[in-house]
Amino acid sequence: MNDTVDKLVIFLAKRDGIDKLVKTFQYVSKLVHWHAESTHPETAQRFKQWEVASGLSRKAFRSGRFLTGFNAIRRNPGSTPTFRFLAVLANAGEMVYFFFDHFLWLSRIGTLDAKLARRMSFISAFGEAFGYIFFIISDFISIKQGLEAERKLVALKEDDSKDVKESIRKIRADRVMRLMAVAANVADLIIAVADIEPNPFCNHAVTLGISGLVSAWAGWYRNWPN
């Protein structure tokens, strides 16, 4: 129990930890609002207010986050030309997303003209979707390379070797993390598409709610202390 509490404290001390918790509040409240809208309108309205407040607080808390993309390119550009190229595209898209998200937040709280909200939302979502596509491609390539490396290690027929076992364990752990990243990025891509090109599937409350929770919980898993 104490170990779990310690890990929770460490998790919530991170910017991403708080973001995933508030994101969970945001999309749970969206689903509750949808479910209760026709039968309990007052309760639904309270959860709608919680959803909006959570979304706005996340945007405020992400102030300056666009710089992390630049830092990621500067510190870890990729091990090969392919990965460097994908990293530049992915992080550039994410930088656009977080940068214009500042203006979206300011327009929604009334600091800037509210009419800017739709335009800022489109630009931010487009950058988000663009970046996630290349993050997903990069992760799939890494997963494929990991599978090939694992097969080679298994083919050595030295399963009892401590080094081989440790290498296989690291490859599998990395694969799980990358699959979580893919799940989160695909879910966020659906949410971005809902802003870019509204449609009945992506914009449905259930689709958005489930996508938001998949993204939040996959991110929760990736950021939870080992």
Automatic annotation (TrEMBL):
Keyword Transmembrane helix: yes
Localisation per UniProt entry: Peroxisome membrane
GO aspect biological process, one term: peroxisome fission
GO cellular component, one term: peroxisomal membrane
A GO MF label: identical protein binding
Alphabetical UniProt keywords: Membrane, Peroxisome, Peroxisome biogenesis, Transmembrane, Transmembrane helix
Membrane-crossing segments per the record: 83-100, 120-143
Membrane topology label: Multi-pass membrane protein
Keyword set includes NADP: no
InterPro entries: PEX11
Primary location recorded for the protein, binned into one broad class: membrane
Function recorded in the entry: Involved in peroxisomal proliferation. Promotes peroxisomal duplication, aggregation or elongation without fission.
Membership in a protein family: Belongs to the peroxin-11 family.
Subunit structure: Homooligomer. Interacts with ARC5 and FIS1B on peroxisomes.
Protein name according to UniProt: Peroxisomal membrane protein 11B
Organism ancestry: Eukaryota, Viridiplantae, Streptophyta, Embryophyta, Tracheophyta
